[in-house]
Task: structure prediction
Amino acid sequence: MRNRLFLLLCPLLLIAQLLGAQNSYTITDFGAVSDGTTLNTSAIQQAIDAAAEAGGGTIIIPPGTWLSGTIFLKSNTTLEVAAGATLLGSSRIEDYTAMTWGHNKDRQPYHLIVAQGQHNVSIKGKGTIDGNGEQFWKPYEKDNAGNMIVPRWIMARDKKVSPLIELTGSQNIYVRDVTIKTGGGWNLHIHDCDLVKIQGVNIINNLYSPNSDGIDITGSSDVMISDCYIKTCDDAICLKTTPDSRSCHRITITNCVLETLCVGLKLGCNESFKDITDVTMSNCVVNNSSRAVGLYVREGAVYERININNIVANTNAPLIFNRPIQFMVEKRNPESKVGGIRDVTISNFTATTEGRILLTAADGAFLENITLRDITLRYPMIEDPRPMVEGSGSSQFPKIDRHPEAMGALAAVVAENVQGLFLENFRVFWPATEATPEAWAHPERIENGSLRIHRPDYSKARQAEFSVLWGKNLQGGQIKAPLAEPSDTEQKKYILQNSDIQILD
Result:
């Protein structure tokens, strides 16, 4: 009986193997050469086209270094970058196919991998997709010994490959396990797509590289990001909406480790033209980030139903105005629409920081029903923001002429124009020693936006003394923080102006 079963199974296994072989397309069979200098764009594209014409299949990039320009993924195909393989972007902009879009300096027409209007597309494997981005950057600013001077952002050339991977107008997308490194600008961009899974991806870039966002989700819905490691200069994971995109809905991000000099988990900023709803972010570590969580509306969008929980962070970045959490609703320019943020809960959030939680809305905008629950801040030092407020030029920091008091307010939480702020079980631990810890005493700190260099005085850990909360025009809501105290006995615990928020300590 066992022998008869074996004889029956053998033909089936052979058929399965043959079908698998027929559905796999190794790029060497189409003339690709792995010397790192031969341009393989045509060979890789031929393999992709052959798979698509056969109804689908897997395009295998085997171990080796394979130089390429723009390749276009097709429906029902999988690009598999095998362990030991590197798909290396060409250093010549002429080797990239210019697309019809390019709404700003970051979303340019040039990409290494494109999927446009496709479905059932996957990128997977244990190999590396290397954008060769340094070829599109201006030379590093170096000292006499030839070492890169930090903190200094690297500037990009006018034309660069950004985003490195552009997936647009497509459905059922899966990106898994690959390492993406050294994009010339943005690394992985999901634009107007539906049903996207990004899992186990590593994105690694120079910490001072120009506008090198990790993952950007623009105008897409039903997106799931999990188990990723991202180390880059600009925003690690950012949700956006642009004039040429749809709105953004049903996004979940979990189990990620992020390091960035900008924002770890972010919604919007200038790219906030349309609504973003139904978002969860959970179980993430954000390391050395200027801001762990940032929600920004500057072009009239409404963000609502946002839950963020189980976040561990520190803001030990060589920048000024670092802040563990920030919500900001402003108008980008007089022609911009006014928007708002409502129904947001951040809970189980623990951060080591020198800065403040900032919650601000411009006149006519709204911040509504904002809950900060089970928040712990630990201060190795306290930054005094006042000497640096005048002349600040970041688009992600409120303007002093619109919020003259809030920008220099000395408190762990600074909130202005919030309807329904609920601060529950908030705890804060002030510097334990008189000296600033060496790890936090960056000799120079740079300002995001203006690039101004500051050289703070670290002679004492407390550059200023903080209250627990400074609030102006806080209508409704509750504060229940019996365990939180100001940094010294001379400070009031709460400083409130024109507010009727209820205190339940």
Notes: Confidence is low (pLDDT under 50) at residues 5-10, 12-21. Residues 257 and 272 are 25 Å apart (CA to CA).
